[in-house]
């Protein structure tokens, strides 16, 4: 395919809403704008810096005793007073801080170094891998941590950093559990799909897109566990496990103070307060980080997360393919030929069955139908991007002569982005909020086209101009949240074009946009097809969009194609009652035709997967259904090369019956044994 040419009217397409200039100055992080977060962070910085640099500034040696000055209250000589041996409390507290702080940090590193990668792997591989890791971590969680720590101390002695590293291993199971939930949720985001479409490998998807989105949760967990670690070290020292006298430790100092509650009550205050404040500060910081993460999540709440897959067994559904009357040959100019496709929940019901589609070079195929008919599942199977737990269980997807079904993920990556690209219905969530538009465009351009940074930026600007963005340089500097919906969708289309694909899968690309912007995006797609020879599979609810943009159309109902053919033929002379009903319920009226007084309606809802009836799946809602519709039957040819899946097709055509309440009433009155 040749590179997209600039659209003739590109410069006339002004941005639908000006984007604000990117922020040029670095602002204070949101968590530091909360008093708890700011004070917590400040206290932790003071304690960490103060403890680690203690040997440089403490006024007294921690072992120097002054028995004449024991249990002294704060004074100019001893700012925090002295202990029962007259040693300076400030010097001892500051010096003792480094052990709990460093041991906690070590514990954190160990816990996250084990728990986080395991969570990423498990989130990426639901099923056996995830189950195995989860069971193993459950075993780890079931171990009695205190007994184990005491056993470790028995073996290694008072090596607190080593003991805390072992504690980190135990904690990694808890870290894994929290991180798994987050990673699973992040992996459902459209921009992660987009990155996979773009051909990024698993490591890069995780590092570039999944991990940054988990940043807040990691920080919150880290801050909380850090506080817990400090308490554990202090607790061990309180019990006598830790640096022995005369070396100072927070836990031992509290223990010491507890035996002088009556003769020196002040002794408990400095050490107890520093320990308590440090733990509270870590928790306050965690709260502030969590609140900031919540705000971020709210900002991105337009994202629709698909339900997680129910089963993860590896069994494939039975083939059970339907033998259609029309064995559809693959035309020479076909870019894509889907034959008898079946998509199923693994170990569960079929979501799509017997779907056959053909997309010719430089044409647009519309997939239309009510919500839940299987349009998205069909479209996503073309890219190998089905949700976790859903898989292609039969049929073939022949793209430019190669059957993609059953190909390993690595091979599919070579197709995604460079040969088959995706535009999703939610442009805002298809773009990663953490990266500028320039970064999101130049990365794939460099990968797909093997060019340097400078040239990639030039190509990115050209692509933006090709999709009708006038001020490409400003948009390149912007971040997704600074774009309007229409502008973001243009950027997504430019992103889809970075690999110069031959086939574009557009899953309801205009649903989230307002009407005027929808028209602009459709005109942009039309121009791209016309000027570049791109082929498009367009998923839509809207018959107006089909009429406007599509050369061919496939009408889907309850997981199967019920009517397909050239758009003009199907829309002008619908043969299947469901197509008739959709057209009768469509509020768009062609120019010059009278506006109907009343739109037709379709009673009931699409049956869910697993509850499809025998025979015609539309029979339960069809005004013209008879007993003959209750038994399975094949499709029949229609629209010169298309097909229709209705046993009464000849009958209905003969009587010129259409889906209006009046016609239906007359028809049903004469239909002996008609069942609805
Ligand atoms: N992750 C999933 N696991 C199991 N079933 C699913 C999953 N996602 C969707 N389904 C089911 O698959 C069927 C087809 O869904 P699909 O999203 O393809 O429909 P659609 O026609 O594209 O609808 P819409 O226009 O609302 O997106 C529906 O019954 C839906 O409930």
Automatic annotation (TrEMBL):
It is found in: Cell membrane; Membrane. GO terms for cellular component: plasma membrane. CDD domains: ABC_NikE_OppD_transporters, TM_PBP2. Keywords: ATP-binding, Cell membrane, Membrane, Nucleotide-binding, Transmembrane, Transmembrane helix, Transport. Pfam families: ABC_tran, BPD_transp_1, oligo_HPY. Residues 97-286 form the ABC transmembrane type-1 domain. It is a multi-pass membrane protein; Peripheral membrane protein. Gene3D superfamilies: MetI-like (1.10.3720.10), P-loop containing nucleotide triphosphate hydrolases (3.40.50.300). PROSITE patterns: ABC_TM1, ABC_TRANSPORTER_1, ABC_TRANSPORTER_2. InterPro entries: AAA+_ATPase, ABC_Ni/Peptide_Import, ABC_transporter-like_ATP-bd, ABC_transporter-like_CS, MetI-like, MetI-like_sf, Oligopep_ABC_C, P-loop_NTPase. Residues 336-583 form the ABC transporter domain. Residues 1-25 are annotated as: Disordered. GO terms for biological process: peptide transport; transmembrane transport. Belongs to the ABC transporter superfamily. Belongs to the binding-protein-dependent transport system permease family. This is Peptide/nickel transport system permease protein. It comes from Klenkia soli.
